[in-house]
Write a structure and sequence with these properties.
Length: 922
């Protein structure tokens, strides 16, 4: 029965495809004249269609006309991409899935591979990122400023910056393509269902304005767009400590040996605000058919803050040394996991965890196309830069005078959230003090990341020489990209000020927050940064020994040459188009960082590292599209694909030491000698089109990953430079019991063998009037994707506390991904229902240390809806549209677990979001 439910959408898609084919075959029995007339009618309707259908038909046109296997999203109109964020729209495409962060779809997995394997372009140019890696956070790009997105599932030789799983190209408006002046304004008002808490209301707003026009006899085109958003952040969460471990005898009194148990739990209410301003501008100049010049500019700045007010309890037999833990009424399930009990002699904390983040992205590009005889020359220069600044602060409060030990009832299978019910009252501000608690008085960080990318591209297209009958034209080009990314992270204790222990003053207090969803009740909430400034001292530094490796720079210079022959021929009676070519990449990568050697004289303990490597990769590719009768297209693609290593894994940072008893060096850190992930890929796709109105498709793919990057410990790593520096200290050599070796164990990312990834995708985009006029206005867009992989990964030692030490599946891989959209559009009315669903996967999150960690994530089922009305021609309000939108209607939670679902880690609720809005187009 379970399998039947899981495959319901797949069966429905297969049935739709079958019925559509049957209907198509009946239509094909008509005369050629009738077919011609129908095609003409379809073309006429495509020109005049508006609203939902306009966006769908534009996307179908992109997919149909491409020589590669692609998916596309197109805006219904200027400033009207259908979803709240660009990531929400992309995540609805076949074979793509989103991971939510802070309630928003933020990062995208393509064909079962994590975001590490995809690259993102803006107007064909690779973009920088504000994270530690190169993957883009899509919620930083206002959907109102994006006219469309094309996802290349198969590359061609001319696609620079291509990824291994896919390449996502976001496009902004091209003003010379518009037939008339357009001025569009829209506004939205939003409310979150979780309501007000800690001085933050649940309301938000969005506003955008766009202008497109042409001047000087249509030789100059201008497009300008501005987008502003101000959104509340609201979250309920219960989190358990990692790892869940099988405890030993007497480790946790009252809990039997061998029981899987977590050493802590917290319940929190997170509140905050996220503001973002974005500007897009494009200037085009086409004085004649021989020259087109396009200048693009994009700017976005985001500021967000949030505070997590939480009750946190250490369950690992530590309460400051006052008495031992004792757990009674213990319940353990058949899987050996702790389910419930009462933990006595615990000393809870009330904590305020504050984060403030500012992101800024700037991008410029200048493209020139010259038509010289039969040749077309393209010259493009680009520059983009991203910066991120963060402040992370914490305050820790406890009941005084110490100790005030508590008994807390625990139930990890207690309904929507794991439950923790304390016996004491934690709602009174006057009884809770800033003090040196069992977790100290506080800790803080101020990470900074900047990422800069400069590029230049030259390409020429010319007709194929005589005798090359299969080819219509040839592209030859060169691209140079210079990227530099660096990170610094100052940290330090937040210590009590001269006044000593103190409660939080009323001027810094907010209304208490209700943690009743977790069984806690009310706890205080307060202004954390103001409390730090008033009562505490915080002097972050980068010079402590454990912080030295956290500062690094990575530089990349990539020179790419490509040759692509475009195919336009006929095999028998079958027209064939596509391309064949090869891309060559020369990579020069390096990283600069430092390591700490405590044995060196004071002032010389920080030792620089400057490492890197160079290599060359060839990436051949073939794309063929066979245009069969009755608007059927069969596509076949072969390619060697590559994805650059994560930027943070290329860092030269390390923590170094010597085992004097064996004379053997050892370290852990990054690896600036990494080579890319490589795969040989084959794709096959069948597509049936009905003009630009509809299509059904089925596709299969296979990727043979020749290499993969694993974090592991390897012996034989060359530490010659580090050992030589260590031996320069005479006292060190005297400590050696055996002669020093120059090689040793290094725990770091390394290239290793890969494995296979395979999948199948079913897609249908159907207006239901294809079957009967009684359903005119109704339509569905649906897809089902199935992925599988033979690759099992030994987990990074830093992530074993959450995913265990056994090999894990590919991060980002959901074996099943379903997307479904049903809509109705008629006489100005629009109704749309969107559902996206994915099975369990391993997701990537950032932990408190600022490092990447992995989690098992429960499958998600997110439902959105929208209703609207567009005032049409002949009305006084022509150009005006009104809409009401609801996101996450079922209040789908984000849940992670440690290996098995009865061992929860995070359970997060972001609530439902409601928006009411208006658009006006002049």
């Amino acid at each position: 029965m379970l399998n039947s439910k899981r495959n319901l959408l797949s069966v429905a898609l297969a049935s739709a495809i079958t019925l559509t084919i049957a209907n198509a075959q009946a239509q094909d029995a008509a005369s050629d004249t009738a077919a011609t007339d129908k095609a003409a009618a379809v073309d006429l309707e495509t020109v005049t269609v508006t609203g939902i259908r306009r966006g769908i038909e534009s996307a179908i046109s992109v997919k149909r006309d491409s020589s590669s296997i692609v998916e596309a999203v197109s805006a219904e109109d200027i400033g009207k991409l259908p979803d709240v964020s660009i990531a929400e729209s992309i995540a609805r495409l076949p074979g793509l899935a989103a991971q939510r962060v802070a309630g928003r779809a933020q990062v995208i997995s393509v064909r079962g591979l994590s975001p590490d394997f995809a690259t993102t372009l803006l107007n064909g140019r690779e973009m920088v990122s504000t994270g530690d890696n190169r993957s883009v956070e899509f919620d930083q790009y206002p959907s109102e400023l994006i006219s469309g997105v094309t996802v290349y599932k198969t590359p061609d030789a001319g696609l620079v910056g291509q990824g291994l799983s896919g390449t996502l190209d976001m496009q902004t408006v091209r003003p010379l393509s518009y037939g008339e002046r357009v001025i569009a304004v829209s506004g939205r008002y939003q409310k979150n269902s979780l309501g007000e808490a800690a001085g933050v209301d649940p309301y938000g707003n969005r506003f955008n304005v766009s202008f497109v026009d042409k001047f000087a006899d249509d030789t100059i085109g201008v497009a300008i767009g501005y987008s502003h958003s101000d959104m509340a952040k609201q979250e309920n969460q219960v989190g358990l400590y990692e790892p869940w471990q099988a405890i030993g005898d007497g480790w946790r009194p009252g809990v039997d040996e061998g029981t899987f148990y977590s050493d802590g739990i917290k319940a929190l209410r997170r509140t905050g605000n996220a503001k973002r301003d974005g500007v897009m501008a494009t200037l085009q100049f086409r004085p004649n058919n021989a020259w087109t010049s396009t200048l693009d500019a994009f700017y976005t700045k985001a500021k967000e803050y949030d505070t997590a007010n939480q009750l946190e309890i250490h369950l690992g037999d530590y309460n400051g040394g006052y008495d031992r833990l004792n757990v009674t009424d213990v319940v353990v399930n058949d899987n050996g996991s702790f389910v419930s009990g009462v933990a006595h002699n615990v000393y809870p904390l009330v904590r305020g965890m504050y984060n403030h983040r500012e992101d800024e992205i700037k991008a410029f590009g200048w493209n020139n196309e010259f038509n010289i005889g039969d040749a077309r020359l393209t010259a493009d220069v680009s520059w983009s830069k991203a910066e991120r600044d963060e402040i992370n602060l914490e305050n820790n409060l406890q009941l005084l005078p110490a100790p005030q030990l508590d008994s807390v009832a625990l139930n990890f299978a207690g309904g929507n959230f794991p439950q923790l019910t304390p016996g004491l009252d934690y709602s009174d501000y006057s009884k809770l003090y800033l003090t040196n608690t069992i977790y100290g008085s506080g800790y803080g960080k101020t990470p900074h990341v900047d990422d800069e990318l400069k590029g230049v591209k030259l390409a020429v297209n010319f007709p194929a020489p005589d005798g090359f009958d299969w080819f219509s034209d040839i592209d030859v080009g060169f691209n140079y990209a210079d990227r530099s990314k660096n990170k610094t992270q100052a940290e330090g204790n937040i210590n009590l000020g001269a006044q000593g222990e103190t409660s939080i003053g009323p001027e810094f207090q907010y209304k208490p927050v209700n943690l009743g969803f977790a069984g806690v009740g009310y706890i205080p909430a307060w202004n954390v940064p103001a409390a730090v400034a008033q009562y505490m001292t915080f002097n972050p530094t980068t010079t402590e020994s454990y912080l030295i490796p956290k500062q690094w720079t990575v530089d990349e210079e990539i020179a790419t040459v490509f040759l692509r022959a475009n195919i336009n021929t006929q095999i028998g009676s079958v027209p064939v188009r596509g391309n064949v070519g090869i891309q060559g990449q020369r990579v020069d990568q390096s990283s600069q960082s430092n390591y700490w050697d405590d044995s060196q004289p004071v002032g010389s303990q920080v030792i620089p590292i400057d490492e890197g490597s160079k290599y060359f990769e060839f990436l051949p590719s073939l794309n063929l599209a066979f245009e069969l009768p009755a608007d059927n297209t069969v596509r076949f693609a072969l390619a060697r694909q590559a994805a650059r290593p994560r930027v943070d894994e290329l860092r030269a940072s390390m923590e170094f030491g010597m085992d004097t008893s064996r004379g053997k060096p050892g370290a852990s850190g990054g690896n600036p000698h990494l080579k890319p992930w490589l795969a040989n890929a084959v794709d096959l796709s069948w597509e049936k089109y009905f003009g630009n109105k509809a299509y059904v498709a089925a596709a299969v793919f296979y990727k043979d990953l020749k290499t993969y990057i694993y974090t592991e410990t390897r012996d034989g790593y060359d530490f010659t430079d580090q050992v030589a520096a260590w031996l320069n200290v005479p006292a060190n050599e005297a400590q050696l019991q055996v002669p020093a070796q120059m090689t040793g164990n290094y725990s770091a990312p390394f290239n290793g063998s890969g494995g296979s990834l395979r999948g199948a995708e079913l897609t249908a985009s159907l207006p239901l009037d294809l079957f009967t006029d009684a359903l005119r206005g109704f339509g569905v867009v649906a897809s089902a994707s199935f992925n599988d992989s033979s690759i099992s990964i030994p987990p990074d030692p830093a992530t074993t506390s959450s995913v265990g030490s056994d090999p894990i599946m590919l991060p980002g891989l959901s074996k099943r991904v379903y997307n479904f959209t049903a809509y109705y559009e008629n006489s100005g009315f629009e109704v749309r229902l969107n559902q996206r669903k994915r099975s369990d996967f391993i997701g990537e999150i950032g932990n408190f240390n600022g490092a990447r960690t992995l989690r098992y994530v429960k499958g998600e089922n997110v439902l959105d809806a929208q209703v609207g009305y567009n005032f049409g021609d002949g009305t006084a309000l022509k150009g005006l549209s009104l809409f009401l939108q609801a996101s996450n209607l079922t209040n789908s939670k984000y849940e992670t677990y440690a290996g098995t679902k009865d061992r929860p880690l995070e359970t997060v609720e972001w609530g439902r979001s409601y928006q009411v809005g208006v658009n006006y187009k002049f």
